[in-house]
């Protein structure tokens, strides 16, 4: 790459989403503000960093952990937020300048990126280079991104279902749940999902091919609801909700069943965790309960592409995105996740090219 | 076997431990009574049953589940108790008469047997024939019986530790815990146990070779206690207590750690299960929590004998028994389990030969 004189480098405005202060309960829009700084479109001389122009951001429930003062030290690899600085998260971007020989100008990448129009990535080794552009680029925030690794590893690595297994998926219309359900259907399972509105239930049943689905907000008794769909019990539950829902699931599992959990969204923002009464069922029913995150499964990404790209191209899998335009609408998109406002995977568009 | 005329068969007195009525809370001595009936020392003509003279009974916490009216249907293979009839449990006995070609008169067996001096076993296929009598016969109620299968399968099948792993064993001086701890030591692990008295702590440290041990009754803060012994966290916890102890364990596990549980004794007799606050740590720390019982692992028994008999003969493993004499003292031995009165594996001697 031709070296330019640093003084002649173009300087542009750079809109950013800034964390105002550490967040304790539910994040609110006022916990963030939009700021505009300037940035030179070149990496610092001698740096190995990569400068990118951001295109899409993935809006994820887990982001709210990064807003807290008391941090989960066990969640290694996380980039916690600093008040007064831009937040970050998974996103798709185009390389503008690069000090890393693995990335050239114009390359498309996905990985952890600051929530700003242009972002300097100091650790480009965490970026994935995007090789397949015949599918929507936004898919690299979801089905081909972090949520995609989560769903793929859940079904194809952590708890592999057998044909005919009776599967329950919670948060089933979300970024991860919709994929888990569809992958299980492709494996010949009976799949039921729970969601928080009739519209989402219709989506699961009519568009995503779930065998059945229910709106948990209309179920006063989760145990009774699950009993209706699983009179003989659940073989595998892919669980992302926690609390009362997890407790009901524990009470309805088959002997030797498995609960695989990559999140407990109902527990993220409450002062005291909900009481679980059925924990002893783990012993009574000889269950296996596994917690996992995508971070343990990044090595599976080539396998994921081999499996999932043909599913996308062959329309075997549908991926529902809820797309919001404009970085300035990011805080509202984050907040909406916790009331279930999003309809499918929440994506934020910063720029279309 | 010579066929005797049924009328000439010896009839003997048969002392029995009878369940008075279903039990709801802690079992009390008054929930049982001793009764003496008579029994003919011959199986009914044409029967495939086996008649045994009982020698030792295993006194197990799990027995109290069988006393309840509301039963755990998922605990398949259990023989629930009927008020007015003898209770049952694992025991060692000598065959007096047999309609099963696999068992001959004089054979020693262990398996599920009625709590009575002589017991007719209608399903002899569940009995194990005792082949090795150079070790104490009472060991077939423990280290070579059900508790033995539980401990062996925990360490050698369900959650196999690696050399150097940091292991926590709860209820560590009990029938199962003392074996798990010693097996883990033989595998080169660092092992800490918890127990309910200083005497038991001394046993663990001085006789059973645990690296350390603590009396949980003297620890107001389980989290702080565990932090002292496991500043870098626990790799595997073999857990039998549940409730507050399990909750503290969840908060101190290493990332990718495993909790293996074959019981939750603290939760068996309380009206409302204790609240667990750290369930979300299963996701945060990517833990695996496995419930299991010996019943899934009976096929491992030949391997257990291959491994454990040499350990016993070579004095590589110590097995501490708390031996009570006399069937009439059975109810008191059962009740004592729940206050931790037993010192090691609780055995009840009915007859020495």
From TrEMBL, chains A, B:
Keyword Oxidoreductase in record: yes
SUPFAM superfamilies hit by this protein: GroES-like, NAD(P)-binding Rossmann-fold domains
Pfam families found in the cross-reference section: ADH_N_2, ADH_zinc_N
Gene Ontology MF annotations: 2-alkenal reductase [NAD(P)H] activity
Sorted UniProt keywords: Oxidoreductase
Keyword Oxidoreductase assigned: yes
Domain Enoyl reductase (ER): 35-348
Protein name, entry field: Enoyl reductase (ER) domain-containing protein
Species of the source: Acacia crassicarpa
């Amino acid at each position: 790459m031709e070296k330019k004189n640093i003084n002649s480098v173009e300087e542009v405005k750079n809109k950013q989403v800034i964390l105002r202060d550490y967040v304790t309960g539910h994040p609110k829009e006022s916990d963030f503000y939009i700021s505009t700084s300037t940035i030179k479109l070149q990496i610092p001389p001698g740096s190995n960093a990569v400068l990118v122009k951001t295109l899409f951001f993935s809006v994820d429930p887990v982001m709210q952990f990064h807003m807290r003062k008391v941090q989960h030290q066990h969640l290694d690899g996380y980039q916690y937020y600093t008040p007064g600085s831009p937040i970050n998260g998974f996103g798709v971007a185009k390389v503008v300048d690069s000090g890393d020989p693995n990335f050239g100008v114009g390359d498309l990448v996905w990985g952890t990126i600051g929530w700003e129009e242009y972002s300097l990535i100091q650790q480009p080794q965490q970026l994935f280079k995007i090789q397949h552009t015949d599918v929507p680029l936004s898919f690299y925030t979801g089905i081909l991104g972090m949520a995609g690794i989560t769903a793929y590893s859940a079904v194809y690595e952590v708890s592999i279902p057998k044909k005919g297994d009776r599967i329950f998926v919670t948060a089933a219309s979300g970024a991860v749940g919709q994929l888990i359900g569809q992958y299980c259907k492709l494996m010949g399972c009976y799949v039921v999902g729970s969601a928080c509105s009739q519209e989402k239930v219709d989506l699961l049943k009519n568009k995503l091919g779930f065998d059945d689905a229910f709106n948990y907000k209309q179920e006063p008794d989760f145990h009774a609801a699950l009993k209706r769909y699983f009179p003989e019990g659940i073989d595998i539950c892919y669980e992302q909700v926690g609390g009362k829902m997890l407790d009901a699931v524990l009470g309805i599992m088959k002997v030797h069943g498995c609960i695989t959990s990559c999140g407990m969204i109902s527990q993220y923002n409450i002062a005291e965790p909900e009481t679980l009464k059925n924990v002893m069922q783990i012993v009574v029913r000889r269950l296996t309960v596994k917690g996992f995150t995508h971070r343990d499964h990044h090595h599976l990404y080539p396998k994921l592409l081999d499996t999932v790209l043909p599913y996308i191209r062959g329309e075997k899998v549908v991926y529902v995105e809820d797309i919001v335009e404009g970085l300035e609408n990011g805080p509202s998109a984050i907040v909406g996740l916790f009331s279930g406002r999003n309809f499918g995977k929440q994506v934020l568009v910063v720029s279309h090219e």
